[in-house]
Specification:
The protein has helices spanning 3-18, 58-61, 67-84, 102-112; strands at 28-33, 38-43, 49-54, 91-93. The chain is of the alpha+beta class. The longest helix has 18 residues, at 67-84. It is globular and about 35 Å long.
Length: 117
């Protein structure tokens, strides 16, 4: 990744994270995307990971799907894990990534699975 792209993403990340209001009843749903994989985790107010899911899990990684479809599976999986912990509402932290493609697919699948943000 070029240095300009990394600086741009960090600038967007700082701007987005300044507007996120995390509370005890609304933890963050943090998304990270690399060139080939996507990761999602729910983090509480003390920055402790409550649950996580990624496209590297065995049953997802073995699928012959494209990355957008895998992101949707990760989104529904993280929503199921969160509901298992009793978490219904989260704050979506896109982590400086633009809201389209894999990020959008993950968010929409998590919403469809019952997570509110």
């Amino acid at each position: 990744m070029s240095n300009l792209k990394a600086k741009r993403r960090l600038k967007i990340k700082r701007r987005v994270s300044g507007n996120i209001q995390v509370s005890a009843d609304r933890p963050r749903l943090v998304v990270f995307r690399s060139n080939s994989e996507i990761y999602a985790q729910i983090v509480d107010i003390e920055n402790k990971t409550l649950c996580a899911s990624s496209s590297l899990e065995k049953d997802i990684n073995g699928m012959k799907e494209n990355n957008t479809a895998k992101a949707a599976i990760v989104g529904s999986r993280i929503a199921e894990k969160a509901k298992g912990l009793g978490i219904e509402k989260v704050v979506f932290d896109r982590n400086g990534f633009l809201y389209h493609g894999r990020i959008k697919s993950l968010a929409e699948a998590a919403r469809e699975a019952g997570l509110q943000f």
